[in-house]
């Protein structure tokens, strides 16, 4: 390293020891930034292939597409699709209190025919029409950070959705 | 993933637009230049973050931009063409009493900018200037005539 007195006659308050240590810290931080961005690209912090998940009810022909890695104050969606015609034109989906404590359900698509409070959460009723098939989208806004197991129920079955909500 | 891609896209868009619009913002912050900075800063953020108000989302966007900036800074050391594209080259706009009007028009620099730089260096007469150069940083370097020349 060129010392300040070699380089110029101007008196500098150079601190080579600190600069050397800072260079190590800087390199480590730049590697961390690269890792963080790479993790973001693959969806470790939501909205990527690592975050996307699909689960199905055991007996009911319902599939749930959701993101298991979420961010607080960032909107997300839970999509319930009906794979084959249901016995009834009405689909009832129960949302457990664990999810309701950590996230707000801002709206559903299509709009629910009725919303009823129950002891274990809230039950949404949707009219599917004569096809008795379709897809329901819940638009969520996670509020509280943490690891939770959200519960959806339908047709007498319960489905656990493990979620991690980042700050 | 979306935030990383949006941040990268907006970084490149703003970089190209700044390169096309003005090079001298950091050096001569006139109202003409500052208005560009304010509007670019205000308009670039909403498309990146959208409705996302999470700390993780903001960190991801910031780290993406910091990472891209670091990468480009390293790349221009290995491939000077990257530096030429992102920052440009030094250009002589005044030499031995002659202005290069074509270069000044391309760089959108006028004699007042050179005069201001001259005065900052304590030179009051254009006849004492050998040449003026618009650097790739956007700064204007005024080279005084040497004594006896």
UniProtKB/TrEMBL annotation, chain A:
Annotated transmembrane regions: 27-50
The keyword Transmembrane helix belongs to this UniProt entry's keyword annotation: yes
Annotated keywords: Membrane, Transmembrane, Transmembrane helix
Protein name from the UniProt record: Uncharacterized protein
Organism of this sequence: Methylobacterium oxalidis
